[in-house]
Design brief:
homodimer, 360 residues, 5-stranded mixed β-sheet, alpha/beta
Chain lengths: 360, 360
Amino acid sequence: MTEACRHFVPGPVWVRPEILDRMKGPMIGHRSKDFRDLFVELEAKLRRLFNTEQHVFVATCSGTGLMEGALLNTVPRSVLVTTVGAFSERWESIASHLGLEVDHLHQDWGQAVDQGGLADRFVGRRHHYDAVTITHNETSTGLMNPLETLARTVRDGASDTLVLVDAVSSLGSAPILFDEWGLDVCLASTQKGMGLPPGLTVFAVSERAMERARAQTYRGTYFDFVDYEKNARERQSTPFTPAIPLIYALDAQLDYILDEETLERRWSRHVEMRDLTIARCSSFARLMVDPQFASPSVSTFEPTNGMTAAEIQAFMRENGFTLGGGYGEWKDRTFRIGHMGDMSVNDLSVMLDTLAKVTG
Amino acid sequence: MTEACRHFVPGPVWVRPEILDRMKGPMIGHRSKDFRDLFVELEAKLRRLFNTEQHVFVATCSGTGLMEGALLNTVPRSVLVTTVGAFSERWESIASHLGLEVDHLHQDWGQAVDQGGLADRFVGRRHHYDAVTITHNETSTGLMNPLETLARTVRDGASDTLVLVDAVSSLGSAPILFDEWGLDVCLASTQKGMGLPPGLTVFAVSERAMERARAQTYRGTYFDFVDYEKNARERQSTPFTPAIPLIYALDAQLDYILDEETLERRWSRHVEMRDLTIARCSSFARLMVDPQFASPSVSTFEPTNGMTAAEIQAFMRENGFTLGGGYGEWKDRTFRIGHMGDMSVNDLSVMLDTLAKVTG
């Protein structure tokens, strides 16, 4: 790493200079042979990233676009939205805009989705849900839901209820085993755990979700999964012109993640960064989430040393470091430390040394 | 210009190296002060580009996304689609996917929209259209519709029919006077006349189109104009995380277009490039469109020297130049020369010298 990271925010993350350089490649057309070759390699790499043999795609949009896309393509009528913070609540807002029937399984901020409560929703089949949404890593609180368990609960509960996952701040930071866990749509924008600029969203789609999409009467155009699949299969390309510079960066960064650092070491580094952050902040701040579900990529704290969250952020800014602010209903009470992407444990440690001085 | 352009395709266009460099700026958050400052400047520049005092926005998506967005936000029921080639026909496909009532005003490929035929659609108000779509510059044929005249025809025809314009390959190449011509939505992706990488779409929206959007029951989420307007006004930002590297490039290129080259000189250069291209190709190829509507940014030819279009492209490729292939129903018969973006007349002339040798 040639340059120290000074930005400890929950995205957009610092991007390595060599990856920024890769954006400067030629502006090839997305129907050219050069692009098709790149696309085929990218698909293989994305399958390794999601641990899937099923469909993988890349779209030019933010994560929110693909959340809308997931609902458009797979939910004809009703969806159960599990909420544990601001970003999981976004599923509800998008589903309401689409005119879907929305049911809720709500937990207080800082808690994980309640597995028992989720299982209860399927007992006696009182409800029928076309899909359940799960936010893997809730960026507003710094909580990682037990996705494998929750996905299994949905599949045990109803064989025809799909599992839609927002993995925006977890993909690249924590394990996602798309096939093994039985997920149906899993999406992530690139400016978080993947260590890339914003502008692209990568997503995996199960064959049964694709079947559902084919049967939908209305899927729109820009987020039509059937069109994505058809273009990938027949033309080795995206349906529409993609953000070529960001595609180059994604391709190069996937090589780094998969073959240089490796997924296993990357996941371990994130756990190490989380544990270091929590340990070093405990004397002057309180972690806001249930510790067994503390996120490996972002930690949210409330100060206990008499300072406000804003004062702590200002102190760090004066010392050349950016921390994240609180979000939504925790905006004023908390600050957030992003420890995701390509920062090194050493970069984080240097920042935490300075942060420790707030108590002095 | 530090490097000669060798790619004469109708987009994605060659991008100047200094603009590519600008993509490497820091990955700021879209709720930060730095971004808000950038956004306010960008809005002012986009208003100059569109010649409007009304709403201007930038979205992270291809032009197709915003075509869908324009229909979602402004058409409750029925739309008249004017078609003169493949890209104008795309409006029809998107409108059909949205379940709208679609009527057509069709012209053969190579012809402009018939002004008299358009006016007839409003006589006696036999039809009521919420909007009419017009493709300013039809990239598949190399034809520029007389947008000012057509827009006036719609406004004279019905006071409540909006004018939705795809300016994908004209914005930055040819005049667009959004307010003066009475347009309602005008969109353009950045990888054509603006000389930028793909990944962003800029668009202008009239106040009456915004009123229509506010009354729509269904606008979706990712392309919701009301949300774009609210975020611009209240937060000086985009609703969702934008492609930051591409925003930097856009900002820098708008400085170049507006203040270094100037719009007037840019428009003249494109006319000069068109006239040069048509003059130099006339001995071995036939221009496919009505000459009075020949596009300033792309020209489509059918060879008359006994060679196939594919052979001409191959000859040029061997000499280090890329030409565009035919598109859609003209795919095999024609080749296209893109003369748009930041290429110089000299770059084009050097290419045309080589192309002239195909007759030899």
